[in-house]
Amino acid sequence: MGRLSRAQLQEHNRAKVLAAAVEEFAERGFRDAKIDTIAERAELTRGAVYSNFPGKRALYFTVLADLAERAEPPAPDSEPSLTPREALASLARAWLARLPLTTDERYGLARIGVDLMPEILADERIRLPFAQLMRLDAILLGLALERLRPPATPDGRLVRVAEAALTTLHGATQMAAAAPGFTDPFTIVSACERLADLGLDDRWPSTPWIPRARPADEPWSPPPAVDVVRGEPARLAGDGVVAILGLHRLEAVEEAVRAAPADATITAVLVTGDPGELAPLARLAVADLCGCLRQAFPPSAWPRLQVVFDTLGALAAAAGVLAVSDATEAAVRVEAGRIVVRADGRGACHTAASAKSAEGAESAEGRAAPVRPSAPGR
């Protein structure tokens, strides 16, 4: 075997650190795990660990994200579900199948995640992005539920139903860690199933603040990327909207989904000013949902929304957004391989989605709507 390049050596050491961290967190839990012990397990120095991860929590989030992305959900018992009730029940079964059993040891692979919520609660800087990640999960699940309704069913938003289902399932996760055996999994599945029938008066609110659209005529040459909703290469060459969103603005992607034509591809490109800790947290939150969603919903019902992680900012740069932060909201409209509309700031997703061309962008200028208060439940 030839000598490894510097990049190959760094990747090799990173893999060794992650493998050692899995063992340490499984045996001791996050609180009692030690960076020095992880370094010893990996046969590396403490400095080598910190050269790959800024701290123990960043390493912990990365371990959890890797496990969630690699997890293979159990094969469905039958064909994927075709009604919202069946899909929610199937999603709940897939979710609960990953939880630790009452007979599991205090630690081990199934229980590595028990310290996740305490770490999120301990830091305000983590809580806001996590809240937005939960909103993104609810949007993804709600859009999938909406696609399962019979054609004759009146249109209606199902994001609030998705929020209720995710609240139930995350609560079950916490109770499985804090009070093993407290509730019967069949009860949770039945409760999630019945949520599909609730009338929550869930309507998409009126048009938000609309910033000025800027007509453009620029080539669109995005780098390859992975759509983490489907677990396959993202479709970036076709017409649609590309939204560059920091982790404080993820809910804005729904504005693009609701405003765009039905055949447009919507891509949410997630960026962050803290790739060390927040990027793996984002990977974890999306993987937790989408692994179960792909099992419970047929491909025809997967949401009309792609999600791409852009840790290095390459896709954002291709869209002309050269500096990103957790507050970033920018969007471009792509037609025939060219960027034809740009928008920046709060409301950019709606502007780019509703302006189909340079002419549309010009007509959109000057009709900025006043700020309206957020709708209840958003």
How is this structure best described in words?
It contains 14 helices and eight strands. 47% of the residues lie in helices and 11% in strands. It is α/β, with parallel strands linked by helices and 378 residues long. Residues 360-378 have low confidence and may be disordered. The strands form two sheets. It has a six-stranded mixed β-sheet, with helices on one face. It has a two-stranded antiparallel ribbon with strand order 2-3. The termini are far apart. The chain has helices at residues 6-32, 35-42, 46-52, 56-70, 84-96, 116-121, 124-147, 159-178, 185-195, 253-259, 278-296, 314-318, 348-354, 358-364; strands spanning 214-219, 226-227, 232-233, 240-246, 265-271, 306-309, 329-335, 338-344. It is globular. It has three domains: 6-70, Orthogonal Bundle (Arc Repressor Mutant, subunit A), CATH 1.10.10.60; 84-195, no CATH class; 214-364, Glutaredoxin (3-Layer(aba) Sandwich). Helix 11 links the parallel strand 5 and strand 6.
Strand content: 5-15%
The average pLDDT score comes to 87
Q: Specify the structural class.
A: alpha/beta
How far is it from the N-terminal to the C-terminal residue, by CA? 55 Å
The level-1 CATH class of the largest domain = Alpha Beta
